[in-house]
Design a protein that fits this description.
By secondary structure, the chain is an alpha+beta fold. The protein has two domains: 164 residues, Sulfite Oxidase, Chain A, domain 2, CATH 3.90.420.10; 148 residues, Pectate Lyase C-like (3 Solenoid). Helix content is 13%, strand content 18%. It has six helices and eleven strands. The strands form two sheets. Strands 1, 4, 5, 8, 9 and 10 form a six-stranded mixed β-sheet that branches. It has a five-stranded mixed β-sheet with strand order 3-2-11-6-7. A hairpin with a 6-residue loop joins strand 6 and strand 7. The chain is elongated. It starts with 11 loop residues before the first strand and ends with a helix. The chain binds the ligand Nc1nc2c(c(=O)[nH]1)N[C@H]1C(S)=C(S)[C@@H](COP(=O)(O)O)O[C@H]1N2 and molybdenum atom. The site of the ligand Nc1nc2c(c(=O)[nH]1)N[C@H]1C(S)=C(S)[C@@H](COP(=O)(O)O)O[C@H]1N2 has 19 residues, from loops. The site of molybdenum atom (MO) has 6 residues, from loops.
């Protein structure tokens, strides 16, 4: 076996002791006691209370969390029950190829896995993290944990597992174009854009993105000063080296978008979701990040190539940040921004 680095490509370690909350922040309010139901293509559909779950074979797995928004957290020790041990009690039918995991949340959040992959990955029903009951905001009292996949395959507040013949795409996979395979080592983050090349050219020529779904758009090197991208969906879009002076990205979803070496002078990112966005070597003088979410964002390239000029964003006193939002950055990124800001 070849030695591979512990951190998958494009990931950074979250601040020590920090475990960001991503996606929904709480379960749906309910007076029902917590339980996990197994239904669908099984011989014996049934429901386990938390006490019953604790009577199944107990497993502990120490895993590295890799969030698609580019932060990672090493060595979280999850305690609970292997999916395999739970399903053994329900007698899965041979026609079941997929498992859909549904949360007790207001939007009935879900994710899915091919059954064979879930079992071989060691997917588990977790009740504890680092020896403590799972915190509520992290999916307590019971969540799915799928080792070796981006963390969106680890559903919080697990309530129901449905065994299916065909896959049923989960919430992020269907709504946000998250990759259904989710392998961090292959950077399976997002599906490719749904636009044709001609549609891409048209939309770039018009410079009006407002409110549109343009995920994974390739706008590298384009002249887009004054662009109106208010409220647009630009997950994973590539604006590397683009001219974006005065661009309006207010309330846009820029999760995982690339702005490497872009000219973003006086651009507005107010209230935008810029989680995992990459601003390495971008010109951010006059840019406004107030109200923006910056979890996992990059402002200085963590490992510039030897001999290359350091890929640090140009930030000065005219760049606007909420000081508090800098706490969401990794320590290295936060230290860099605090040092050059003002
Ligand atoms: N019910 C539910 N589970 C969810 C999500 C969500 O929005 N709702 N988000 C997913 C995503 S994208 C991630 S990265 C992890 C975040 O888990 P954490 O908040 O405990 O870090 O939960 C996953 N499970
Ligand atoms: Mo995520």
């Amino acid at each position: 076996m070849t030695d591979r680095p512990r951190l998958p490509p494009g990931q950074q370690i979250a601040a020590p002791g920090k475990w960001p909350i991503v996606g929904e922040r709480q379960a749906a309010p309910s007076d029902e006691p917590w339980s996990v139901a197994v239904a669908g293509l099984v011989e014996r559909p049934r429901c386990w209370s938390l006490e019953e779950l604790r009577m199944l074979p107990w497993t502990e797995q120490t895993i590295d969390i890799h969030c698609v928004t580019r932060w990672s957290k090493f060595d979280v020790r999850f305690g609970g029950v292997l999916l395999a041990d739970l399903l053994a009690g329900a007698a899965v039918r041979s026609t079941a190829g997929f498992a859909s995991f549904v949360a007790r949340s207001t939007r009935k959040h879900s994710t899915s896995l091919a059954l064979a992959e879930a079992l071989s990955a060691g997917a588990m029903i977790a009740l504890e993290a680092d020896g403590e009951p799972l915190p509520r905001q992290h999916g307590g009292p019971v969540r799915l944990v799928t080792p070796g996949r981006y963390f969106y395959k680890s559903l919080k507040w697990l309530e129901r597992i449905e065994l299916l013949a065909e896959d049923r795409l989960g919430y992020w996979e269907a709504e946000a174009g998250y990759h259904n395979a989710a392998d961090p080592w292959r950077e399976q983050r997002f599906l490719a854009s749904t636009l044709s090349r001609q549609e891409m050219r048209d939309v770039l020529a018009r410079r009006d993105f407002a409110g549109r779904d343009l995920r994974s758009l390739d706008a590298t090197g384009h002249q887009l000063h004054g662009l109106d991208a208010n409220g647009s969906l630009l997950r994973n879009a590539d604006f590397s080296r683009a001219s974006l002076c005065n661009a309006n990205f207010r309330r846009a979803n820029l999760s995982g978008a690339h702005f490497v070496r872009a000219d973003l002078r006086d651009a507005s990112f107010c209230d935008a979701d810029a989680e995992g966005a990459d601003f390495a070597a971008a010109d951010l003088r006059g840019a406004d990040f107030r109200g923006a979410s910056l979890v996992g964002a990059t402002f200085v390239s963590p490992s510039p190539e030897p001999g290359a000029s350091p890929a640090a964003a140009r930030i000065d006193a005219t760049t606007h940040f909420d000081a508090r939002s800098l706490d969401d950055l990794t320590p290295e990124q936060a230290a860099f921004v605090r040092q050059v800001w003002k």
